[in-house]
Amino acid sequence: GTNAIAVAIDGPAAAGKSTVAKIVANELGYIYIDTGAMYRALTLKVLRKQIPLNEDKAITNLLANTDIQLKQSDSSQHVLMDEEDVTSAIRSEHVTNNVSYVAKHAIVREEMVNRQRELARKRGVVMDGRDIGTHVIPDAEVKIFLKATVEERARRRYEENVQKGFAADLEKLKEEIEQRDRIDSKREVAPLVQANDAIELDTTDLSINDVAAAILEKVNKVLKNRGG
Ligand code: CDP
Ligand code: CDP
């Protein structure tokens, strides 16, 4: 409706952003935009084409010729890259461990942010990532910064792997998460940092539903104040 707002959810890897963002979007009837999936889709293509990760111009050219779509079907979201369904391919360890090197290039981010702002233009969106509240939608009406200890975040990824029947090494997952957080936090352009006006939620000891409820409460308060 005319009263719809933008909800920005940022935070480090496995803090619970996408799980919670989907629930919140669903409850509000908003669209959910997974910006990490966009960087992952590009990274998948870069790896397939064996473009060196430091070649920012070549990667940007590739992005200019890459169509990335986030498609909502029933309750699940699908990621399409050049019309190929890459929903699971972009979650591979190979993509996960390389995505931060692709995402740190200024000119790559510029194009991604343009696309993301276009997607958020109509409001009624929940968008998650690393720089949503600080850079992509600095005027988002609700900004959330999710965090959790790295031990808990590694445990969550470990559980996901076990449930999928994959071999998993908790210590290795923890190191990979720390490495990605480090690159994301230290890059020059739009690093992972909490916006001044973001609400911080430590999810270490919170359930998914607790976190979703806390965010919905903030959103509903804002909507009420806007007279809707
Ligand atoms: O869900 P997970 O924490 O594994 O990561 P993601 O949200 O899928 O994001 C993957 C990577 O994309 C991050 O580690 C960042 O390097 C990059 N990213 C970014 O730079 N800016 C965003 N707005 C979203 C993701
Ligand atoms: O998107 P992000 O990388 O921040 O995290 P996610 O993929 O939404 O969540 C990582 C895992 O943690 C998922 O398996 C969630 O089910 C789980 N999770 C949890 O156990 N407790 C929470 N409060 C939030 C997420």
TrEMBL record:
CDD domains: CMPK. ATP binds at residues 11-19. Pfam families: Cytidylate_kin (PF02224). It is an enzyme of class 2 (transferase). Residues 7-220 form the Cytidylate kinase domain. It is found in: Cytoplasm. The keyword DNA-binding does not apply. Gene3D superfamilies: P-loop containing nucleotide triphosphate hydrolases. Coiled coil: none annotated. Keywords: ATP-binding, Cytoplasm, Kinase, Nucleotide-binding, Transferase. GO terms for biological process: nucleobase-containing small molecule interconversion; pyrimidine nucleotide metabolic process. Its EC number is 2.7.4.25. One of its GO terms (molecular function) is CMP kinase activity. HAMAP family: Cytidyl_kinase_type1 (MF_00238). Belongs to the cytidylate kinase family. Type 1 subfamily. This is Cytidylate kinase.
